[in-house]
């Protein structure tokens, strides 16, 4: 049995190598070697439709793969299209499009589950945009985001229609009424239309682009009834978009009893969230997300920690002047530390995930202790910068 995996990084490749199947990796031209054994390592531009269709017919078809999958955002639609073209297992392309296209997802929810939606408008619908900023909503914020964006790229908080740049007044931009409350990420694995929640992480964000600076699992501010509400809302969303099998990473906001869907993807979450699932649930989330179409389900082992978090290092824009060494915690445990910046490196304003400077993975003996550890690490000042204003003094 052969499994084709598009766009794997090293962590995904290591997980794929544990599956009882022949694994064929397909990666973009110029990608660095994975350094992980596989049945084959192939190169193809899967982001260019005509080129990739020819590759599927000429190279993948003779391999007769049982399934084609991807856990990377830009590989999701090509993997779905290839699976259908080959008659292999995979997520249907129309389902992937309904999750990757945020405007299409809003319209699907508007028809079938409007209570999960905030008011929204396409960037090229001037009347709908004006309604979002109507007289009764004067000054209320509206979020603008790319329809197919990830990583907080090009996300803006608007307070008046005129705040939307002319080059964003098109179908590629989605506007949504800002939703109050706390934000959570929900990891699910579906099988035959049954959705199993593998973990919920509480997010912390920073700035008006809402860049994620920490993920905590389990969520400190969500009680048992709140978790059930979130799980029901996510299951309803997945039913509506038609995702019956495979992984999903769904982001929601909770304000009182109301759960609002922010977005969803048919892959595990990024930012080290699979490691939080592994530590707190005992499930190799990457392996399960790859193995479902070849009959390999999640294998649960004893959890290593009660609570875990990923924490991201940020600093004011300028140039790095000092980088502190890893902390020596006493009330929590540091599992991984990766802060690659060095003195002299430039630091840009925090506008997207790419502007973060490093990451730590930590564990603790409870959700509250984990939250305190995140606060400690975020306030530590790991990276010191010299700002442009200071250079002029």
TrEMBL record:
InterPro entries: ATP-dep_AA_Ligase, ATP-grasp, LAL_C2. Keywords: ATP-binding, Ligase, Nucleotide-binding. It holds the Pfam family ATP-grasp_4. SUPFAM superfamilies: Glutathione synthetase ATP-binding domain-like. Residues 106-294 form the ATP-grasp domain. One of its GO terms (molecular function) is ATP binding. The keyword Transmembrane helix does not apply. PANTHER family: ATP-GRASP ENZYME FSQD, FUMIPYRROLE BIOSYNTHESIS PROTEIN C. This is ATP-grasp domain-containing protein. It comes from Streptomyces thermolilacinus SPC6.
